[in-house]
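Good day; I would like, with your permission, to put a structural problem before you. A protein sequence and the structure tokens that stand for its backbone fold form the material at issue. Thank you for your consideration; the sequence and its tokens are set out here:
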Amino acid sequence: QAPRGLSAEEKRVKLLEIFHESKDFFQLKELEKLGPKLKGIVSQTVKDVLQSLVDDRLVQTDKIGSSNFFWSFPSERGNIIRNRLDVANSAKSHLRGQLQELNTSLEREKSARPESGKRMAALEKLQASKENIKALEEELNVYGVCHPAKVEEKKRAVVTAHEAAVRWTDNYTILLAYFTRQNGVGEQEIRKFLDIEENYEDIY
């Protein structure tokens, strides 16, 4: 007897298994028949589950003639994760260099003033970003690129890491404004001293 009461995520995983186990192309009507038969997915929910996978680029679709066909291969998901991991690692490397330069300047003021709450919050967010990337790398090594549930977790981790990197640039701007106010030094002078370019904040 087919299982019942699947969660939304379990339905996504099981629908992906149909594609990856068969390595074939399907129309929606075929999946609505195979879902209940092979994986216990209620037929009426297959369309919405399929659309969510298409939206997340885990399933590809194309119209051939008057019919829409859907397909997905494990290697496609692996490439998506690797590309996003590269972006996150690049952002982390850039942030690490900028943080080291900023810390060198701020360390001289540390003994004379209490630790800035904003700076501590920024450092915590950067650490969270580094931990997310580390966890992502470890999971990718353990599970490879063919485990649907883990691919979803990796995707969310990369997005979170990139968002943390973007938030760090905002905290950098706040720190720069605070430092200039407290020391009466011009923003351009600090940027020049730290060799920070004008487009530093533009991380996408």
Observations:
- The mean pLDDT is 78.
